[in-house]
Batch of 3 targets.
Target 1
Amino acid sequence: MTATATSARSDLSELGRSETALRTFLHGLPGVDQVGAEQRAAQLGTRSIKTTAKAQAIDLAIRMVDLTTLEGADTPGKVRALAAKALRPDPADPSCPHVGAVCVYPAMVPYVAEVLRGSKVHLASVATSFPSGQAPLEIKLADTRAAVEAGADEIDMVINRGAFLAGRYAEVYDEIVATKQACGDAHLKVILETGELATYDNVRRASWLAMLAGGDFIKTSTGKVPVAATLPVTLVMLEAVRDFRAATGRQVGVKPAGGIKTTKDAIKYLVMVNETVGPDWLDPDWFRFGASSLLNDLLMQRTKLTTGVYAGPDYFTLD
Amino acid sequence: MFEYAPAPESRSVVDIKPSYGLFIDGTFVDPADGGSFKSINPSSEEVLAEIAEGGAQDVDRAVRAARKAYDKVWGPMPGRDRAKYLYRIARIIQERSRELAVLESLDNGKPIKESRDVDLPLVAAHFFYYAGWADKLPHAGFGANPQPLGVAAQVIPWNFPLLMLAWKIAPALAAGNTVVLKPAETTPLTALLFAEICQQAELPAGVVNIVTGAGETGRALVEHDGVDKVAFTGSTDVGRAIARAVAGSRKKLTLELGGKAANIVFDDAPVDQAVEGIVNGIFFNQGHVCCAGSRLLVQESVAEQVLDSLKRRMAQLRVGDPLDKNTDIGAINSAAQLARIRELTEAGAAEGAERWSPPCELPDRGFWFAPTIFTGVTQAHRIAREEIFGPVLSVLTFRTPAEAVEKANNTPYGLSAGIWTEKGSRILWMADRLRAGVVWANTFNKFDPTSPFGGYKESGYGREGGRHGLEAYLNV
């Protein structure tokens, strides 16, 4: 913990009550040097993960995938197929683990719930007028409640970037608190949409804001804007959850989403988790990948490791 | 737990001969008196090769060859033609960089990720950069027609064997000089492979001569009458002896010597990146870096938090096999250097500083030293004043910017310094007052061939790199 190490736990819970206190706190966080953060992320990307370590990383990455489809064209048939794949990613190999969760729009939740019932695969739904978040609060909350009632046990909300960038931190905070309440027992992942926040200082402040407001996970992106998850952004968020736990004792998860397509990419993220926050976060309860095409690449590399040869893409299911 | 499996770079990419002669006048020759020494792998103590030991006669032969090449070939050659050879050498270095990187790590003990990602790219960049100057010397700011000096005697250290060779040879050749270079006795192998690259590039005979040996060989070289220029990188003690030896002669001298750099962290620093900079500043290349940030000056109000973060980060450092691609800290270069590090760290503990190292398992064979920090260090401690040249950081605190400047400058050295703060005006204020040749702001150990490098005070004189680096090899 850095600038806030001395803040007592009770102090932090009071922060949300005042716009001024929240602003003073967030602007008092240590800055992020862009060049240094990007250099550190690039260094971690040069780790060489081979043989047994690679096999371990691939299985862990599969268990961390939030298998996602968020298209206007999603249908009950499409999401049922995706859910089936989530349960058994590699039909040819029963030793292949299931993914972490399936992530869909609220309207698709009931169809996925039927398939996943009785399994350990979580059901995540985006909500709060995903992806823009530009809707009245009541509608966002209704969106959230509907998804939970339909069977989602994880809610991926978007923050109000307009309010954040305008400096209305209390408004963002209150929306997260209200959404968390609407979630009930469901886990709340807070999407920061880091591509729109633009600076690492903003990413660090938004991460703290989301954690202070009660988010269970902080997530990089919707996948709907040009810049999605990057290694340096994820590094800054990992540092934030590490420091937040040191200050408050509460552990928050991290989910990079969008643009992670290959096993090589996924392994770089796992190395970063390992060397930034340590083994406590190397678990699907605390780290997830929001991805769709990543899974098949993981499966191909997994098969390559067990059989010694690459199988063509036709040997892996497209769902 | 996520354990990284061993990921060793293959050592079969490089072919090490059982023995090497001296590279004089374009060929490998036996030394006149037949002496030799062994170069070992410091991570295993295994003998890598038998190396010829050059004596006074051999040095004389090499200087004569260099003189002949200077008079007949290299001196009269138009700059654009010299450039062609330098570009060719640069390209061959890039093509053979994997081989050179593995050899450097074997002979020096540094991790392969550093020789691969730092040393070799910089070596090639130096040759490319100075190749560009060879036909543009009239535009370098040293007059309309600057002339070379003649034969340059160059003695280089063991911490960056090939990079120091590049810093010395590239500007000398670009300016039209010929050279006799003596690599360090513990790390001669990449210089000898470089000699093979000179042959491959068909560099005219005698332009580059490499005479291996220890201190006596170096002394014979710098004291030789036929030498016009002496360039040395190494310890301040040897530098002083060289300055005395060449005093009163026509020889032009540049020295790049020791350092005890302050890395200064203010309370408004970007903490996570500052911690990376501290680690990079002192643990890069096992701390065998003359400009290493070996004194951490941290503002007292954030000292505890910065140290907590630093210790957590240090626990992630991977010490071990230099050829493993995931190794962060390799082997100490020699038994002698290890003994010196031990002596100074024991003095630090005896003088009352508090010592800390992360839990780390060191290999049984070879020369190893765990990354170490000392807290509670004062300006009076030996570990705050003497260059340790190992992975050992002394932590001191300060209260105000003025005190930081005072402590940073309170050393006989003045090679480099680092400043960590989000306040731009403070960076400039500090940089004006720090008596150090290089001042890094919110970064550390950044090198570039276009940037001059050199020291204040007992860290030496003259500059290497950039346009300024040409001056050392021109008659200006």
Target 2
Amino acid sequence: MTVPVEVAFDPGLPWQRARSVALRPEPFGALVYSFRNRKLSFLKSRTLVAVVEALAEHPSADAALTACGVTDAQRGAYVKALADLARSEMIEVRA
Amino acid sequence: MTAVVPQRPVGGRLVDQFEYGLDAPICLTWELTYACNLACAHCLSSSGRRDPRELSTAEAEAVIDELQRMQVFYVNVGGGEPTVRPDFWHLLDYAIGHDVGVKFSTNGVKLDKARAAQLAATDYVDVQISLDGATAEVNDRVRGTGSYATAIRALENLAEAGMKDFKVSVVVTRENAGQLDEFKALTDSFGAQLRITRLRPSGRGADVWDQLHPTAQQQRELYSWLLANGDGVLTGDSFFHLSAFGEALPGLNLCGAGRVVCLIDPVGDVYACPFAIHENFLAGNVRDEGGFQRVWQQSELFADLRSPQTGGACTKCAHFDACRGGCMAAKFFTGLPLDGPDPECVQGYGEAALAARDLDLATPRSSVDHSHTGPVRGQPTLLGMPAIPAKPCNESPLAGTGLG
């Protein structure tokens, strides 16, 4: 198996939910599905769902996190979750 | 009944969330027809003959529309042999055109070069070819004479057409458990991916389960093999009962029945899982008012299945968190209680439970049976050759006439 190339996630850039990705709300958060690579991922909290949906409206992922009330203590975990979503192409940098 | 609705936890592991069910299934199996050209000895749906009540093309399209609305992103299509439905290729295109991806299982009978090229050119479709032996000898005993050659020809056609990511789907049996490396090599040679699943005592599988289910030793070897190769091999939620050996295996370690998976059968009946075609696990029908969505979200049966198990022998076991008591269908069709051990419990509790069964009680059988009633060309020989009725004149030209 090929080892996935580690792409650095920059929370200072503007991001958005990838255009080929659908988001299905669930009681625990949401399910995201990429029609492009056919991968399924899970957003394991409602706050993370709010962050992913808010990305497009903010100049950076950092700003989206702040707007969604993510505290400094939680920020590391959320940045990691977004980095995972970027790696699986669920979110993409806005042009 | 005034059931206390269990409270879904906030946060935590996904597997704990799945236990309470989802608003729509993640993985839905849809069997399009009970008709099949083969008569596999272990067929989980006792397929063979078409059911005259089968969903029409328009009804199947309506189901796809509903799946699109519910955001069910892909379905596993099977049968029977789905490709023998004359509208199969139309429904495939219709689903893809409505954002419902299709992974379909086939024995390969219709996958000629033209169809293989068509599939290779279609995005968002996955094909898996069923093969239950890495050699014709092992495969054909269970699936029927010539079925190995048919599957290999289909695999060749797909590879030649440049199809990507197609699968070889294997049910692990006592007879092929020693061939896992051979299956992997065979699959690799076509650039395909190996998918292995568990034999369940469902459908005609109940008739051959004692003879075909892997031995305790084979289960141990399978577990080791999956730990070594699991990342490159698909298993779905098939082998979570093996997690009680120690380490969790890749894949979903939870019975997904009615929680994240279910089955729509050819006549539109919705069952908790593909291995549970029995009235006890029938939640409703897509033809009912409210359609599939109402069955999924409101049936009493599914509500029951979404309550975490709190009682029963297994909850007291140290391995319960790993295996969650195993496969519901495997227990049910071997006559074991649903809150007790899986018949193949790797800690040995299943064998004890099987031995303690009241033998006067018959194991439950499904009333849904579409098996061929007469001999089928290339019939599997696992259960012996079918007897050919003796013709009286084979003995003497005058036999049976009263003149002999």
Target 3
Amino acid sequence: MKALFISFYQAFYDEVMEVLEKNNVTGFTFWEEVRGRGSRGGEPHLGSHAWPTLNSALITFVPDGVVDTLLADLKKVDETAPKQGLRAFVLEAEERTA
Amino acid sequence: MSIYQSAVRKPVTTALVYVALAVIGIFSLTRLSVDFLPSMSDNTILVMTTYSGASAADIENNVTKVLESTLSSVSDLKHITTSTKENSSLVMLEFEYGIDITEATNDVRDKLNLIADYLPDDANTPVIFKFGTDDIPVMILSVQARESMNGLYKILDDRVASPLSRIKGVGTVSISGAPVREIQVYCDPLKLEGYNLTVEGIASTIAYENRNTPGGNLDIGSETLTIRMEGEFQDPREMEHIIIGHFQGRSIFLKDVARVEDTIQERSQETYIDSVQGGSIVIQKQAGANTVQICKKIIEKLPELEQNLPSDIRIGIIMDSSDNINRVINSLIQTIMVTLILVVFIVLFFLGRWRATLIVAIVIPVSLVASFIYLLISGNTLNIISLSSLSIAIGMVVDDAIVALENITTHIERGTKPKSAAVYATNEVSISIIASTLTLLAVFIPLTMVGGMAGEIFRQLGWIVAIISSVSTIAALTLTPMMSSQLLRLKNRKTKGFDKFYGHIEKALGALDAVYAKALNWTVRHRITVILTATALFIVSLFLFNIVPTEFFPQQDNARLQMTVKLPINTRSEITKELSFRIYEQFRRDFPEIEAMTFTVGQASEDNVYGQLGDNGSHIMTGNIRLSLKTERERSIQEISDAMREDLRRYYPEIRTFDVGAGMGGPTGGQTTVDLEIYGNDFTTTDAIAAQLADLMESVPGTSQVTVSRDEYAPEYLVNFDREKLAEHGLNISTASQFVRNRINGATASYYREEGDEYYIKVRYAPEFRQTLEDVQNILIYNSQGESVRVRDIAAIGETMQPPTIDRKDRERIVTVTCVAAKGAALSDLVEAASQQIDKVDIPPEIMVSIAGSYEDQQESFKDLAMLMILILILVYIVMAAQFESFTSPFIIMFSVPFALTGVLAGLAVSGTALGIMSMVGLMMLFGIVVKNGIVLIDYIVLCRERGMSIMEAVVTSGRSRLRPILMTAMTTIFGMLPLAVGRGVGAEMWNGLGITVASGLTISTLVTLFLIPAIYSLSAERADKRKQRKAERRQRRALKETN
């Protein structure tokens, strides 16, 4: 089980959802409006006067096997508009039932 | 969820909301009535008092002054003018615009009740009249008649006026010019003398013989019946056989001493329509009725009515106000269409996307339609003001949609899907869209608060633009993103032909961007030069004030002229008539533009109130001329009236004074006038000064006509009875005067009744026995003993001059010298000339001369508007300061305002237009419009700076990026105004000034703004930076000291 944290420009919402659906990921947690800036020179999304756009963030927990295809699909989305930014981070996760 | 988000997510709801708005709007449009001007509140009340037998001077002292002093305390009164003539006094109360006239009327009535006891006993109770825009006739019909002339009044009354007044919405229908039937009993004085009879005796005998008497009730069997004696004449000829006296045992019949004529009133006005005698029918509408519909119904009804008339009667139309309205409205609708197409093309030119252009083309009409709902709800009409407002609004309201659309397109080009782009791009610009609408509201809402005449007109303009721009803002935040999300495509597939064509434009626009960036680069390095050049430009442009003349309202060409020609006073009406025919024939020959001309000569009868209010008299001819349409002739109405004045002056030396006037009169009417008002009590002095000023003004180039208000002194015969001699013969003044009056003016004996109408029976000397002074001297006066004496034995008859009508204004006697501006002469030139001429005249200290007329109205309105401009500037600044949360940025942006003035002056000077009310309003609108450029530019510069650019870099980058939106919004507004500015259609002259003002002001201001604002910004930003730096350094040093 891996946790996938995706932070992306708001406008990519539909595309991200499509990717999740394509890979049969049904569960996720979504923050519609978050502020953020990347570290590779893309456009900041700060909701300020200078940078009025906003990011969204999403975390989903998926089986290990899906991670690679998911990441590949997300990269495709990112490449359609590299300056706008879409980043996915993979974390270790563990599902436990008491 | 924000409003644009829900709009994009619910396209069906959003679309249907706007469909509903459009449907309600179109429904309102079908319900709106059409009129020329918005209905203005009335502001004039007339108080007329008649006092038979009193001279002008007596009435002035006993009636007019009393009324003046009481009525002048009525609140909101602007001017009180009075005109006192023999027998009557007319007080005109002019109130401020926008007051409740009903309340004012009640006030006036209360005051009149208060002083009723102080008026002379013989004076009649004062009558109150109200006049407003609704009293202006909607239609005037002409009636030509030949054989039926004598019966015309009755025929018209029964068969035309009554059916017409039954049409819904028609108010009063009055007939003028048609002679009224009267039964004349013309006596021979010699025979009367021979039989010892008097006019009075005959009159009372006729009255006794012409009577129906009820005889009470009679019970017959089981019934009660009334009994009646019928003695009224069935035919006027019966009168000839009544016995009026006995002489030497024989009965004397009326026919023995007099002849009975069933004819028309002796002294009456005669009207000629295209040289055929006839009359006119004046039709007024009920308050609030739809002029266009009424006129249409009347025209439909006319052929039917004409069938019932004798074959020699022909009905024509002298004036049809709906005709003018329809033309003006049609030319305005054309203007709106042209504006719409122009604006859409500009959007296409800059955006280069069919679908985006389509969105703009849908959003504009939707916003416009909303204003119809306002018009219907507020009870307004579709008129020249409301439609022009629509045309004005188009170019401005499109900005909101453009700003939103431009940003959405940019986002899509960056690769965002249309749906998301629509939401997030709209979100980014929503604040600046709202702010720019607020600046517009800051201009147009105060415009609804202007007072005076101008306020009545601009209230609608203000509300309509305010409403349209609010709706367009809401549409820009909902409808535009919704449609963008549905219509725009991520990959812009352009058709090949368009692609090729637009490729060139795109290249040119790109080159323009580059050139501007380069120029900006130079500008920020030569800031002081740029600022100084701009300042110099502004100062130089101020000198244009000397070239640009000022006016009040533009002169309108509604193709009608009014004319009054006065011959020396007391000229017989036959001579006046003969001259009128000569003028008519000459005018018809020399002015092919004349379509119809009617003229009226003669004195109005005493019971004709409307006739009495106007100029009338045996020496006066009043004419009404209808010209062909403005668009169908070469000479303007001003040129034609100038030429007519020239002809009257040159070819008819017998004319004493004349007045040719264009248009409807009033401040929005056809001509510009300067009134020189001479206040003073002494007739001789004021007359002399008036004559002198009139002479001087006549020689001023630019005056086309000068008239003096005070009439000539009228010569008259004065019968002076000697009281002692009267007493010797047992007579008094009243009896003696009455005898003379009855013989010349006639005694009303009774009424002749026929078919429900009553006609006077008048007894007097036959016309051939009252032609010389001797005839008057020979009149016999009887005392109660039946002894007779001739007038010559008890009275001296002398010739005197009767004082003219006494005009007063604001409780002082006044003479007005009215100067009409010739074609091309502006109000300001005339005023300047007038004040120079006044200085030349030696004016005694008790006499006051002041300049009024259009000038007074202009000064008042200009003062109001100047106040308003300050208010608007402050409001605009506040809106901007709130948006930027800064004091300096809006201050910098405000520098584009002076250059609007530069552009306005240049535009007016080049086009030769005068600075009038309309240009002033245009200038006010510019305050709200020109700052938009600055807002867009400065907003982006600040944004770039926040993104970390240096000042120079930020200025150049944002200039390059914002050039197209600025040019696009400015050009839609400029081109939106062009159709108004260059319009030549009927009624277009009113809006030319405003169109030119906004178009030229915005052009120059935009060009200057593009360089000056960046220069000033970089200068002030650098200063601020340095100050910050120095402060930081100081703090650092202090901190260092402290640590040491």
